Amino acid sequence: MKPAPFEYLRPESVADAVATLDLYGGMARVLAGGQSLVPMLGMRLMRPSAVVDINGLGEELGRIETRGSETTIGALVRYSDAETSAVISERLPLLRTAIGYIGDRQVRNRGTLGGAIAQSDPTGEVALVALTLGATVVALGPDGEREVAAEEFFVGSYANALAPEEMITGLRFGVVPASCAFFERGRKHNDFAVLSLAIAATPERDGSWHDVRVGMGGVNDTPVLARATMARLEGARWDEATLAAAAAAALEDADPPEDVRASAEYREHLLPIHLRRVLAGMAKEAGHG
Ligand SMILES: Cc1cc2nc3c(=O)[nH]c(=O)nc-3n(C[C@H](O)[C@H](O)[C@H](O)COP(=O)(O)OP(=O)(O)OC[C@H]3O[C@@H](n4cnc5c(N)ncnc54)[C@H](O)[C@@H]3O)c2cc1C
Hints:
By secondary structure, the protein is an alpha+beta fold. It has helices at about 15-25, 35-40, 60, 80-85, 85-90, 95-100, 105-110, 115-120, 125-130, 150-155, 225-235, 240-250, 265-285; strands at about 5-10, 30, 50-55, 65, 70-75, 135-140, 145-150, 155, 160, 165-175, 180-185, 195-205, 210-215, 225.
């Protein structure tokens, strides 16, 4: 199929883009990497009156910036730029690793971090890492800028807290725990995830772990934190019994969907097995295992 007719607009600044979105009163869509929007237009799953192409706004939206312990990634930063950025490798290795699981090289060369957050795919790697690391989404609308914690941003499957006349300008991360791991199981290499896990925590010399964050993708209609698991792991030594109990507790925060990729039952089966393995791997790497 071909898209329904729409106006194609190229704003000259972020302010101009927001004014255009406001003018169309919810009937305009931002075009970033186009890796999700273009297929959705082609299938007529979306029929906006206008498409606002922000690809000319790299000067304002295409930077990775640091200020003290904060790292801010512009909405138009492509996956491949983040993947090869020394700043991201050093400060956000969990994000770098997770990006390697997204689509294929072509998708990563075009797709943007802002687009991934706006798309709010429940299996999206960037959304999962943002939630796990407690990132903040920076949005600009006609009334100015606001910051939304990732925990409040994702409100449902492909749904988020962004107003139609707002756009994402960046994603901000603070200090992250010292150790991290990412796991993903899909039907085939680089397919959308059936189950994904993002974990960050700081190992102490006495064998205990602190600042524990465990995020899960593919087990709910948004990425979710495994709060029951986190409570069992925080301040604890990760011995075999603790890890088994903590991994089993992840099911308390999961309500897996049934879809073309996997049954809910299969996702529930995979979750504690892989979570325990990933945690044990982190403990071993820290010399605790
Ligand atoms: C073959 C293939 C495989 C893929 N595999 C994966 C995968 O494994 N994991 C994964 O997470 N994704 C995957 N994707 C999707 C890909 O990651 C998309 O790039 C991403 O979902 C959207 O980013 P984009 O920059 O292309 O956004 P676009 O497609 O341009 O836009 C997507 C949506 O976000 C909105 N939007 C974009 N930028 C902004 C902004 N700054 N502010 C407000 N709204 C905005 C658009 O209006 C649109 O609604 C895949 C896509 C393809 C084609």
